[in-house]
TrEMBL record:
Pfam family, one: GGDEF
Protein name: diguanylate cyclase
GO cellular component terms, A-Z: plasma membrane
Keywords from the UniProt entry: Phosphoprotein
One GO molecular-function entry: diguanylate cyclase activity
Amino acid sequence: MPHKLLIIEDNQSIAKVQKHIGVKIGFDVDVAYSLAEAITLIEHNNYFCAVVDYVLPDAPAGEAIPFTIGADIPTIVMTGKIDSQTRDTVLRYPIVDYITKENRQAYHYLETQLRRLPKNEHVRILVVDDSAATRNHLTNLLNRHNYLVAVAKDGIEGLAQLEAYTDIKVVITDNEMPNMDGITLTSKIRQEYSNEDLAVIGISSTKDNQMSAKFLKNGANDYLSKPFHPEEFYCRLSQNIEMLDAIATIRLQANSDYLTNLPNRRYFFESVQEQLTKNLEQQQGITLAMIDIDHFKAINDNYGHDAGDDVLKGLADFFKQHFPEALVARLGGEEFAIFFANHTYQEAQQQLENFRIEVDKHSPTFSQDNIHFTLSVGVTHQLKTRVDEILKVADLHLYTAKESGRNIVIAD
Ligand SMILES: Nc1nc2c(ncn2[C@@H]2O[C@H](COP(=O)(O)OP(=O)(O)OP(=O)(O)O)[C@@H](O)[C@H]2O)c(=O)[nH]1
């Protein structure tokens, strides 16, 4: 079910633009052209958030704001008035944000905010501060933007919370705290997490004008002096989260195969090598298999390249369903590899044999052209120090599988 967005705006053209933005993001949008209409809609619907005009025919001075706030709807105020009295009136309410309708940039900003709010439901922020009042204040600010929150009253508790919640993306930490201060906490965090995985924002009310440099030199991504304005707090927080998201997206793209979305060759080599080093230390077995579609060239020749792509995508989905615990990658072309870290050799071989049989049976359901195909598989459990050496052994078995007529699993 899409989230519901309420727009309260009497200017029809502006309402149309806002609705377009909301629909583009994926909201189910209702528009009210007056406060009276909005009240009726709020009575009958559950809104995820609202965009509220400051001046309405039946609410000329921001009177609509307390209605959405009172109904617990996260509220973004849009206003054409930019005087400081209006701003002060607006900011007296616990709103998500206010945006002045000065130019096109305002609508880009609205779009950014509307995109962020649903995402924030999955982002956890850790607040570390020895003052209960500050912890509560920050928790309220964060809840207003839909973030999940964890709290700690010193650095030691902060580290424990990081262990307890693996979804923490940002740590906001005070410096002056008993047991462990914020700067020590930051440097300890950096021993475990890079600043591309977890952002740290230092906050302090100290007069020491070198505090921000101290935080940053110890690995913080950002710094805010207390007291800070909520607007600045939100802007810096969302900028840090956007940066983490952008890095995660780039990483995912660099590690995935564009056609099938499976991990690619580079990712497979890196993560198997890492796992291999661990297994060699612990003398634990591994299983690695190379899998190749039989006569794939003929599929391309007979049905066309797009149909060939369709087969590759269908097979990749089948891999994902069948091997949720193993690492499956597309090495290139019609060649795939699987790495089993936690299965006995017999179990892994059996799973591969079952998979070969299932593909022979069900492959026509994978593609629009109902193309039947089979797989040849080479599998090994020879533990060597390098991935490419193990792949070479699996590849030799794969060659034997092809030579022996295809549609077969050959193991050592
Ligand atoms: N549609 C499609 N075809 C691809 C892609 N990458 C490689 N191919 C084709 O995959 C085919 C692989 O052919 P071959 O290496 O001769 O192997 P084969 O026909 O499967 O024969 P055997 O492996 O001996 O059973 C070639 O025709 C490539 O052009 C891709 O991303 N999409």
